[in-house]
Design a protein that fits this description.
It is a single chain. The protein is an alpha/beta fold. About 50% of the residues lie in helices and about 15% in strands. It has 5 helices and 5 strands, in the order αβαααββαββ.
């Protein structure tokens, strides 16, 4: 029985470690891996249309906004409403959700640091979307500085 219990616990720990291995949040599969590097190519028209269809649905936007509210409520309960002790992963996830809900055609990555700096990389389709990134990111509790390495490009078609 002891062997079985230790095997089950070890398996759960291994599964959890593998599942939590990558802290860089992405808005799409075609987003660049590193938000600090400028994008080398624009997304294909098919990829843009698929992302747009999903992200522009009201259901998806409602889900993203509900996720953001849930994160904020959890933070308020754990940290008495302050932004202290927020994990980088939590900030990155919330910023990614915020950007995905408000910039539906973007292919963006988000990386957060302990000091509240968020770095956003990837591509958006126009300058207006690019200009929205800092404002939207700073709406998330704990974000103090936003570095935008994203570019505005036209999608290939």
């Amino acid at each position: 029985m002891k062997k079985l219990t230790s095997f089950v616990i070890s398996s759960l720990l291994l599964f959890g470690a593998v599942a939590c291995g990558n802290n860089t949040a992405k808005t799409s599969d075609s987003a660049p891996d590193n938000p600090s590097v400028a994008p080398s190519e624009t997304p294909s028209a098919q990829a843009t249309q698929a992302a747009e269809k999903d992200a522009e649905s009201q259901t998806r936007r409602n889900q993203l906004n509900a996720d953001i509210r849930a994160h904020e409520q959890r933070n308020n309960g754990l940290n008495s409403g302050s932004a202290k002790n927020r994990s980088e992963a939590a900030m990155a996830s919330e910023v990614r959700s915020k950007l995905e809900a408000n910039i539906p055609k973007g292919h963006l990555t988000v990386k957060a640091a302990k000091d509240g700096t968020v770095t956003v990389g990837g591509t958006v389709t126009n300058q207006d979307q690019l200009a929205k990134i800092p404002t939207l990111a700073k709406e998330i509790k704990g974000v103090t500085n936003v570095v935008v390495n994203a570019k505005a490009t036209k999608a290939k078609g």
